[in-house]
Design brief:
The chain has 203 residues and is mainly alpha-helical. The protein contains 8 helices and no strands.
Length: 203
């Protein structure tokens, strides 16, 4: 048995009265959804590559829709993907410029950049109370990794270490580590000032 509210909704949809904005909107959404689904099915059925591409785009669209209210996470993920692509490009450019001798080193450097980019993404979300915006932290760290990967075309052996140092500095600075160190040193200084006069009066 169909409930009465559901039956009334179906009747409203079938009537399609002009002054009923809900019914008109719902019809448009159904038409566009059917057309989009048929288009995706037609594209995916042409070849295996098209099927994989369409499936990947659908999964990406679903993930973006699920995270539509988490702007900082979307910014961080987009920055990580762009950094991985740019690091791969610079790694390939360094391999071409250095010849076959530097191919293995450039490949290891690219994997190092990808690992550091993942560390930046995780490091920004590990602190429970992050003082700044986490997505901005990841973007700053990824910018330093891009600079390090560009320097890797000239110095492939030291670029990953440079990227790691820059990443550590950004995570500590943006994660409140410097402020915590300042508070501890300030507290220790205040306690030392309090204890010094007491020691002088005892003498």
């Amino acid at each position: 048995m169909i409930s009465r509210p559901s039956r009334e909704s179906v009747l409203r949809f079938l009537r399609q009265e002009r002054d009923d904005a809900w019914a008109v909107r719902l019809l448009r959404r159904i038409v566009f959804a059917v057309a989009g689904a048929y288009t995706l099915f037609a594209l995916a059925s042409t070849s295996m590559a098209s099927f994989v591409t369409v499936s990947g785009l659908v999964v990406l669209a679903v993930l973006l829709w699920l995270m539509r209210r988490r702007g900082q996470l979307l910014l961080a993920l987009a920055s990580t993907l762009v950094t991985a692509a740019v690091a791969g490009y610079f790694g390939a450019a360094g391999e071409i410029a250095g010849g076959s001798a530097s191919g293995m080193l450039s490949g290891q450097a690219v994997f190092g950049y990808w690992a550091l980019s993942a560390m930046a993404l995780l490091g920004a979300w590990i602190p429970k109370n992050h003082p700044g915006r986490r997505g901005v932290t990841v973007v700053i760290a990824d910018m330093l990794l891009v600079v390090a990967s560009a320097a890797g075309t000239v110095l492939p052996g030291a670029s990953v270490a440079m990227g790691f140092v820059g990443l550590a500095v950004v995570l500590v600075a943006r994660g409140g580590g410097i402020a915590a160190v300042r508070r501890r040193f300030g507290r220790a200084g205040r306690e030392s000032r309090r204890t010094v006069p007491g020691a002088e009066t005892d003498g």
